[in-house]
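If you are new to this repository, start here. Below is one unmodified record pulled from the training split, so you can see the exact layout before writing a loader.
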Amino acid sequence: MAQVLESETAPNAIEATLSYIVDDGTKIFTETAVPGGTDVRFGGTPDPRRVTIRNGRHHADALTLERNGFRFIRHDTAVGDFFDEAQVRRVYYAEMEALVKAESGASRVVMFDHTLRTADDTAREAHKIREVVRRVHNDYTEWSGPQRVRDLLPNEADELLRRRFAIIQVWRPIRHPVETFPLAICDARTLSPENLVVSERRYPNRIGQTYAITYNPEHAWYWFPRMQRNEALVFKVYDSLRNGHARWTAHTAFQDPTSPPHARPRESIEIRTLAFF
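And here is the target side for that same chain:
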């Protein structure tokens, strides 16, 4: 068993390579695979960049959902087995609805999706779950955020879209502390609209949009070393409010230079919510 590096001994910052994209004018899109498969991406030019990533544990008290776009918290869960989808929907959805309400101040939270991921190809195929995403991206766009409300709540959408809403996600490890491919997240204040490039996600029954991200030396990156099952990252991927609050948070899995020898592959869950104010 790999030795887990305690959070207090992790470095203040690390250097790592993140995979951005160059907007070369080609159409950017992803053909989504079935669970257990591998997505296939087209368009754009990969742009790997060496960046500094700060240890967010040392800044956690100062990082907020509204200003930075994300918040790191200690949060226990009663879920015993995250591979049991019925248990996730019965237990975890209720936990996450309460958490997102508490963290965002939303009056109503609608859970609509969750994704399990692993960096282990064999486990991914066996459990029919998804791969880790090793490119800098944001999950929704100016178009696809409101469209998700129309897709999921068609009878209420016109009324709901007259008021502020956000798409807020929660990410956590599901078993072991994260030893490989942790999540890096970018301070929303350093993410410029010029960095956002529309990328289609093509599903069998619909077409969605995400943002691919172009490099900007102003980007301020954070990661939270060796995140554990009782820790969570709450972050925004869309906010309709345009008055200076965080609206997007670029994020990506990355190759961690501090990973121990024979590290266990990362296993995580992300859950997606519509938050209405």
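Two things worth knowing about this chain: Confidence is low (pLDDT under 50) at residues 1-6. Residues 85-104 form the longest helix (20 residues).
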